[in-house]
Amino acid sequence: MAELLKRHPKAHKRRRRLGTGPASGRGGTCGRGNKGAGQRSGKEHGPKFEGGQMPLMRRIPKRGMQKGKKINRMHQAKGSRRRRYQVINFVRLASWDPAEPVTPESLAKHGCIRHSDRPVKLLARGELKQPLVIKVHAASAKAQKIVEKAGGKLEVNP
Q1: CA-CA distance, 109 to 36, in Å (whole number)?
Q2: Alpha helix segments (H runs only) across the chain
Q3: pLDDT for 95-109, tens place per residue?
């Protein structure tokens, strides 16, 4: 059966031989024209090129998210002598084990904050019903009163 199969005569199209003299019709510039990007190897401009006119992508204003250098602004001051804190509230500490002290490391371990190496501030949202030992970088005055009222201990290390 295989011996009956024949190759199609036009299956393989011969490539044009370029640069074979002026009489061939494909000599000289080899069908590429004179000078410019079209004649160079690598050829042609990209799909966005508009002949030197300001391209559409640059004429239209940019919108939405832009990929760029991400800057860690956690420790940068917004005003004079201000720090950016990770905030923790009493709402997060409602189910905390009283035997375990509340530190930035333990808060990060339990997923309450993202980074244990950045400053943490305790604010007074929610209620504190059990005495806890809390070690943070800053705390509001109201939060300090609530911790003392619950019988806990608050250590502030700026």
Answers
A1: 63
A2: 56-59, 104-109, 141-149
A3: 899 999 999 999 999
